[in-house]
Each structure stands twice: as C-alpha cells, then as structure tokens.
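Each record in this resource describes a single protein on a pair of labelled lines. With that in mind, the following record should read easily:

===
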Amino acid sequence: MSLNNSSNIFLDSVPSNTNRFQVNVINENHESSAVANDNTDPPHYEETSFGDEAQKRLRISFRPGNQECYDNFLQSGETAKTDASFHAYDSHTNTYYLQTFGHNTMDAVPKIEYYRNTGSISGPKVNRPSLLEIHEQLAKNVAITPSSADRVANGDGIPGDEQAENKEDDQAGVVKFGWVKGVLVRCMLNIWGVMLFIRLSWIVGEAGIGLGVIIIGLSVVVTTLTGISMSAICTNGVVRGGGAYYLISRSLGPEFGGSIGLIFAFANAVAVAMYVVGFAETVVDLLKESDSMMVDPSNDIRIIGSITVVILLGISVAGMEWEAKAQVILLVILLIAIVNFFIGTVIPSNNEKKSRGFFNYQASIFAENFGPRFTKGEGFFSVFAIFFPAATGILAGANISGDLEDPQDAIPRGTMLAIFITTIAYLGVAICVGACVVRDATGNMNDTIISGMNCNGSAACGLGYDFSRCRHEPCQYGLMNNFQVMSMVSGFGPLITAGIFSATLSSALASLVSAPKVFQALCKDNIYKALQFFAKGYGKNNEPLRGYILTFVIAMAFILIAELNTIAPIISNFFLASYALINFSCFHASYAKSPGWRPAYGIYNMWVSLFGAVLCCAVMFVINWWAAVITYVIEFFLYVYVTYKKPDVNWGSSTQALSYVSALDNALELTTVEDHVKNFRPQCIVLTGGPMTRPALLDITHAFTKNSGLCICCEVFVGPRKLCVKEMNSGMAKKQAWLIKNKIKAFYAAVAADCFRDGVRSLLQASGLGRMKPNTLVIGYKKNWRKAPLTEIENYVGIIHDAFDFEIGVVIVRINQGFDISQVLQVQEELERLEQERLALEATIKDNECEEESGGIRGLFKKAGKLNITKTTPKKDGSINTIQSMHVGEFNQKLVEASTQFKKKQEKGTIDVWWLFDDGGLTLLIPYILTLRKKWKDCKLRIYVGGKINRIEEEKIAMASLLSKFRIKFADIHIIGDINIKPNKESWKVFEEMIEPYRLHESCKDLTTAEKLKRETPWKITDAELEAVKEKSYRQVRLNELLQERSRAANLIVLSLPVARKGSISDLLYMAWLEILTKNLPPVLLVRGNHKNVLTFYS
C-alpha cells in the first residue's frame, strides 16, 4: 500500500475482510491536494472529509485489494501520532480526545463487535459511543487516564470483557463440525433408513415402477420444500443450538416454538426406540435361522434392544467427536451395502435366484412391473404412507446446530446435498429392482417351462419359468412377498444385513443425540419452567447429560412396552408437524415484510413455502388421520399453555412483525371510515405522571376504556431540556412494562416541555394515530390548590381551557385522599433497599464466621467493602431512615388504601349521575359503561336532572322516555327543582371564607389604589367579577348542599363540570367553585363533553 503525504500506517487489531482502505492526511492548501491527486488512484466512493482545528483532514478511498486494513490505533490500544504530531491528549490544554482516523471524534468505524448480543459465545460485545456522547459538547479538562469510552473507541471492548475473553478461552477445546461430517453424513444416514433394504422392493411391487417413482418424488418434494425453507431461515441470522425448535421459535415466537419443540424432542426420543427395535428384530431373525434364541422372540427383542441402547448412550456421552466417528463408520458400511446391491444386479443370476424371481435386467420385467398391481386393502396413499417416513431425517444435521462451525453455511449445503444424493439412491434402487425381479415367484427350481406348454404371457414365462400358481396360492418370493429381495439380488448377502444394521443404528444414534440437544435448547429458554433442570450442560461442548439420561429412560420404556406399531404413526406426524411449521415459518417471515428478513439463501418463495406447509399437513392425514388429529390436539394444548404463561422472551419473531403490519393496515383503513355517533367511545389522555404514582386515577379511567377505547397515560417533564429528555427516555420502557405487568390496557407517552401547560398542549394535539385520537382529557383534582404557586393554578385551569379549545371533553376526578402516592413509593423503595442491605450484611457475617479460620478479619472487611457497608455512618443513617419511613408509611396508610379503591369490586350501591347540562351525552355515557364492568355491575344508575318545580312529573316522564330510547337502564330518576335557590348562610359563609385570601376588595379603595392593585395582582378576584357571577357561585354552593343531602352514600358521583368562560372567570374563583362543589363527598367525576352527540337512539 502506498500513501502520499502520510508517514504512518496503522493496522487494526482485528483483521477485516478482503478490502483495503487508503488513508491520506492532506494539507488544506491546493498544492498538497494536487500532489495527492497525481499519485493516488481515484476512489471508488465519494470523498469523506473530517475537519479539525489542526488544519488536517483525512481523505478515505475504499477499493478492493489484498487483505490489509487500516486503523489509527495500534494493537495495544495506544493512540498513534500523525505527521502533525496530533496527540490524543493535548499537552497545553490537558484536553481528552477520543480518536478515529487520527482525529478528535468519538465516532467509531463499523465493527461486528457492536452488533453482537450480550453474552455472545463468538466474541465480546462492544458498546459503541452513544448518540448523546457524540451529540453533546465534548467535556474539557477531564482526567488523562483512559476511560471505558476510550477503550470502546479503540476497539478494545468494554469493562468486563475479561470475562468474555475467558469465555472464548474456554471454547478453545470445543469440538465443532463442518458441513460434511456435521450435516451431510447425518442426514444421509437418517434418510437411508431400514426402509431402503426391506420395504422399497415391496413398494415397487405394489405401486409399480411408475407410481413408485411418483411416490418417491412426492416425498422428496415435501422434504425439498422443507429443506429450502429451512435453508432460508438458517441464513437469516446466526443459528444457535436447538435445531428445528430454534428455527421455529425464533421465526414464529415461543408459542409455536415451545409447542413443537417439546413434541419434536419427544418424537426423537421415541424414534430411538423404534430404530433400536428394528435393529433387534433383524438380529432376532438371524438367531432364529441359526436356532440360537435366548428366551422367545418378544423378550429377545427387549434384551437386545436394551443392550443396544446402553451402548449407544455410552457412545453419545463419550462426546460428539466419538459419535461423529461412529456415524462415519456406519455411513461407509451403508454405502458399501448399497454399492453391493447395484453390483449384484449385473452379476448373472443362477437357477436358485431365478426361481426366486431374479433374472437380471430384462425389458419384459421392466414393462410388466411399470404399472401398479395393488393387493387387497392397499392403494396409492396407503403405500405412500408406508414409504414416506423413509424420506424423513432431513433435520438430523440441523438438530445439532450448536455443534456446527458455521450453521448458516453447513445446514443448507449439507441438507440439500443429502436430499439429492439419497433421492438418486432411492430412485436407482427402485428402478433397478423393478427391472430385475418379478412380482411373484415360487422359489421352486423345478417350475420351469416345458416344451409344448402354453405360456401365460408373464415376463417370467417368457424367461422360462412358470409362476402361475402364485395367482391361486401365496408364494414366498418376488417383490410382493419377500422383504429380503435386496439381499438376494446383492453380490454378497451379508453386506445387506450389515447395511440394515448400519441404517438402524445410525438413525438411532442420530435421534439419541438430537433429542437431548433440542430439549436442552428448549429448557434453556425457560419456556417450561418445570423443565429448567435439564438446561444444564457439561464439559467443553456443553453436553446435555441430563437430557441424555431422560432420552435413555424414554427409549428404554418404549422398548420394554414393545407397542411401537401403535405409536409409530404419531411419531411420524410429530416430525411432519415440525416440517409444516418450518415451511410456515418461512412463509410467515416473508409475508410479514420485515426489513430484518434478509436470508442469504435466495432460492425460496413464500408461496412455495406455504404450499409446502399445506402439503405436510395433507400428508399427515394421508399417513394416519387419527394420529394427525392427536398431533394437532397436543400442539394446540401446548400452544395455549405457552401463550397463557407468556414467557419473558423477545426474539423479534415474524409474529411480532405481522402484528405491526396488521395494526398499521388497520389504522390506515380506519382513516377512510367517517366517524359515527354509534361507534363513539371515550378515548382518553390521562395525566397520571408516572402511571404507578397515581394508580387510582388510572384505574377509574381504565374502568371505562378497557376493551372499548384508547387510554394514554401521559407525563410531562418540566425543567432543563437535557436532564428532562434523559430522564424521560430512561423511564419509557419501564413505565410501559409496568402497565403490561399490571394488565392495564393503556399506552404510556411523555413529553419534555418548558412548562406543564405547554407539555399538555402538545399531548392534546399530537397524541394518537389517525382515527385513534383522544377525545377526552382525564385529570385529577388539584387538592392543594390553595397552597400551590400561582403558576401551577394557571397551568391547571389553562389545560382545561386548552382542552375545550381543541374540542376535547374533560373529566376531573376527585377523591378525598388525593391520588399522588409517589412519596409512599419512595418509602417502599427505601425500605426494600435497607432490607436488602440488611440481608446482605447478615449473609456476609455468616460467611465470614464460616471462613473465620482461613479468612480472619481481613476477609470480613473485603466482603464488606464489596457491599459498601464497611462504614458505620451509613448504617446509622439507614436506621434513622427506617424509623422515619415506617412513620411515613403509617401516616399514609389511608392514602395507600384509597389508591386501590377502584381495583376492588364495588359494593352494592348506586352511581349518581347529576346530568345538569347537556354536553352531548358524555356525562351519561361514562357511568353507563362503568355499570357494564364486572367490578361495577352491582351499582345502579340514579339520574338527577334540573327542572321546574311545577313540571316535575312531566319532566321525569320525558327524561325516562329519552333514557329508554338511549337503551340505558336506570334505577330511578329525580327532578331537582330547587337548584337555583340561594344556599343557606353557613354554606355561603364557608365559600366566602375560602375565597377571602384571593379577593382584591377594590370597591373599598379609591380609584387610583384600586387600579394599581389590579395591575400588581391581576390574578385576584375582583368585586365586580364576583358580583357578575354571583348567581353561578350560588349554584355551586347550592349543588353541594343537594349532593350532601341526596348522594352522600353513593359509590360514585358523576356530575356536570361547570365551564369557566375565558376572560370572565379568574382561575382562583374557578378553583373555588370546583372545591365547594365537590367538598366532603364520595369519589366525584366532573364531566363535560365537547357538546357533540355521543348518544343516539337511531339504529
């Protein structure tokens, strides 16, 4: 690499890919630029400049080249100097700079370490500089000692990387497999099952060569489509251990993954028993021929099967390396057996083999065997159901994905090649055996054609043998009758027996390894908490020894039960269900259109994957309909269970992506629908602050918005913008999580603003999405308004005015104890902290006492130092805080009880609705919705409306008629005719005393003084204002008297909110109205709609 105008080349500590950066430090003058341009190749990408106060800049060109890279940091992490002697630490100003490309910027170049997950086994995760660190002004005069951020910028990792490095050292002895030994060998062994040697000839005899090829082809279509889908999923990110479970769970989520993972692991465990029993049956047949039976056939199978499983378990527990070697040996034996068969087809047949139906390759035999000849009870689908399990096994490599060097490359390559090779073998064996062996043969060498005998037209007849009696009586030989056709045809029969042993043992060994691996991955994710015990791994390879033992127990149990014929269809359906979900996972991920779905394996199509999923489901019913039903029932039960438990995982599944797409589409579609009064529902902004600080306010709002309307918990952060934004961002996720944990169907939103009113104004205008915008503002009553600063009162009343300006309804909720329990929460947090410190101290002392002889006093101080409790002063302060906290907790006991009053089921009683002013019906709709809730269903509505004394009955009948048209049930209607009379003197006196501190009393002063007071204290209540709205003030006081008289025992009071006309009613007078109106009452909802209809009696 040649560089102009630069003297140093710095190599990054981590080599990059095959690309080369060219870095030139160029002076700002034109001459230097010209020199650089003359001596360097033109860059392939546009020039990027980094300016700085040293009047230097870097020009970076990126072009293909040798495997060299650059960086401005040495491998030791020390910052390098440029020609201009640019230092990381300026010696004059002692300023600390973090450098990239030799310049004072914290911006880091792209590296893989930034994108790893925490705890990644492939390397340490490094935190890039945050946007705040880059965006904010660089701090000056900081310490010279490099900080953790310095290490990050230099690519040295983060504090605590030593643990990750040690973890990498621990991985040094881990055995990892490539795509051949890890995937190809395993898949070929699993697909080439015992079916190849003892059933394929019978299938050709039943279905014929033509339909036999179609059966094989249809099976291969299913496995190929599944392999393609699996390859796409595997190449869409790093694949960990767990095989099919991992692929499905990370694509479709824990619900699907957890359900299929359990039955897939169980299916593999039972498959061990199936394959071992197949091996044991072959051995028992050999013992029968040699007359060497131990007990009887059934018990001999159990004995041989048990011994075999113990041996296979020993190989598996010995380690994956030994298991892989055993698999390679078994594959060699299997390949020799297959080759032995093809060689046997060209060896000239003798008379004994001819009598058994083998005549080498004959066109007449091929033609005769080409068409089907199904026996009684058999058909295409029944024969297909028997063959299809032979084509399975494509997940054998994926099941040990955690033991592969590069699963993303190995699984697609090995699996697809295995499918291709095994398909060629199946087709070759089927065609060859169909062209060499007739369907029926007697085995009698004397059944030859005698001269003058009429030939029956069969292929055997034309070749000199008469097997016509097989039409009337059963024969023992031929494709239809003899399962040992391949042994007869082969060049050396015992090799076929060895092949059968190899096929069964290799499949059993693969299943014995797969089941624990999949089960361990499932248990590690803690989806089923009761199974956490089996998540532990041992040794360098994290071997699931506990899973091996469990698989061994399951396999032994089914071997001893010996009822595998019944359960075999269910196991086949379990595997097919896994195939179906893998296909559906690929389709679902593509259909969700998530930008994160970027598989490197591009040979797939989402509709083809969907077809594969449907095909798998259809094959399940073809194989065995009742087994398919059982599979679906079990999977559905597990799905419901996992969904109910809601495991705390987030894997970015396609289900989440599709949920977003569906929500977005529905929201957009909703914008095209005009609002209608019949579909009106309260959609509320609730000014709770942090949702946990005012739970009662949130509970009462949630009571009439749950499952019917939008609810947004809002918080306004007031203060310096930088601090507010930081605090706001840090708490967003926590507060939304609190809502989810407490099963409150609401959103959390927050804004940072210069003042509270500006923040609420922003929320009122910008909250919501499309038609899902708030139409009602819910706030708590400002109980301390008489002690609060004037600006707080102005903001409080101002947001009510703003809501009305935006045509948004307002609900003010008042309870006697107030809503804010933030002090109680602080006390609880303090008590919890002190309790944790106490427990930690006790544990430290206890451990020290146990280690007193070896550790002594020094050990105690060492442990105490870790817990920050070595000093006696914090302990003393903690004791004082504990006493104060307990006192505060006792003092606020009523407040705590009040904060939960709306969570409880309400006692039998009434909700009194004082519908004094027609606001469109919101005052009536909210209490009606409350009565529909389970907690409020025992509360009846009592309606109070104003009227004339001389028309009480008429107005009562009219109101009852209106409510019946609205279809709102009510217990009683009361017409109040004495609302407008003056309140009694005691009540009025209380009101006057309330507003006295805020009155101006300008009428008692001369004109000049009065004008001066108005200018100095414009917020005070003037005599003129009080006189102008005296009737309204009378009404509020009188209403409180009526409320005390009629609704004191109600569970809840819903009351029309008085409206303060802007510019006419001062803030303090309005607050006084609200205070006197709701004083000494049960919980009160002051409601005022936006005066647009929310109720209708039209259908």
